[in-house]
Amino acid sequence: MGTIHPDVLHRQTGRVPRSGLAKMASHIKKDRQLLILFIPCMIFYVLFRYGPLYGLIIAFKDYSVYQGVWGSEWVGFEHFRRFFDSPDFWVLFKNTFLLGLFTLLWGFPFPILFAILLNEVRRAAFKKTVQTFSYLPSFLSVVIVSSMIIDFLSPTHGVVNEVLKQLGFAPKYFLTMPEWFRTIYVLVTIWQTMGYEAIIYLAAIAGIDPTLYEAAKVDGATRLQMMRHITLPGIMPTILIMFILKSGAMFRVGYEKVLLLYNPMTYEVGDVFSTYVYRKGLLETNYSYAAAVGLFESVIALVMLLLSNFVSRKAGGKGLW
Fold first, then answer.
1. Which residue from 79, 265, 266, 276 has the least number of CB within 10 angstroms?
2. So where are the chain's domains?
3. pLDDT bucket at 137, cuts 50 / 70 / 90
4. 253: left (phi over 0), alpha (psi -120 to 50) or beta
5. Which SUPFAM superfamilies does the entry link to (predicted)?
């Protein structure tokens, strides 16, 4: 079927065909209220996400505060070579990878399981109470959460050690024991993020057609079978999207929580790329070297995001793009 010439279309319908700019203007006018609400978000990303990308230039320079970004001498990949040749590289890579991997393996399924189980609760008051208490930790700052964990695990007055004393065990200062650091970090992350991440899955569950559950009841399916064959497949697209985002952020272990929880006795298992960047950049004022390490971490995170998106599309046909 051939296309209709604009002049013929005008004679047949009496309407003048609009250009691309006219259509865009029409869409902007139609959705102007939503676009106005989006302006603060756009300003935030321009100022705090895309604007700082300009500073990545110093990763390839011997940056001097007095000479400025463009006045500093170009050194190419010298900082990257020095970082790759340093004995710290593999220690940081291993610690970052293991912390991110354990957080993904243990922290990712918990919100899904919690949301599915919470959806099966029939008492609305109890359900809302549990959900409220579950996402309260997400409103607390990292400093407060870390302080609470330090108090809970204190060998003198901590709740955990008081329980151990009552059971006849000797108190332990868990935060100074390298073998416990990763476990504590993962458990704290799960406790802090499980509640608000479950909200996403609860919203996905709410979008499942209720007639599917009614038909399953008629066929005699148990609640466990309905969870397995209806609820879980129904939220699978959301699970895949969240898995891609989590996998992409696996190497982006934030420095705040690690910095507050670790100490010289746990450096060997707790020191990650972000804390290394903090020390080299802010404490030692080696800005170019720290920028190179941070850029390497970002590149690894990008590779992980692309890889997880590729695997997700091959496995389930869903991806971010």
1. 265
2. 27-76, 83-316
3. confident
4. beta
5. MetI-like
Q: Phi first, then psi: what are they for 74, rounded to 5°?
A: -75, 135
User: What is the topology classification, in CATH, of domain 83-316?
Assistant: MetI-like fold (1.10.3720)
To 10 degrees, the CA torsion angle through 157, 161, 163, 166?
-90
For the record, the structure tokens of 130 come out as 């549990």
pLDDT digits (tens, 9 = 90+) for 194-238: 888 999 999 999 999 989 989 998 988 888 899 988 999 899 888
| Distance spanning both ends of the chain, measured CA to CA | 31
CA–CA distances in Å: residue 306 to residues 39, 96, 312: 28, 19, 10
Q: Is the pLDDT of residue 84 over 80?
A: yes
| Both structure tokens of 44 | 């935030």
- Per the DSSP assignment, residues forming a β-bridge with 61 are 74
Q: Is 162 exposed, middle or buried (0-12, 13-18, 19+ CB in 10 A)?
A: middle
Whole-angstrom CA distances from 71 to 51, 67, 68, 273 are 20, 5, 5, 28
Grouping H, G, I as helix, E, B as strand and the rest as coil, residue 140 is coil
Q: What is the pTM of this model?
A: 0.80
Report d(CA 103, CA 94) in Å as an integer.
14
pLDDT in tens, 153-162: 988 888 998 9
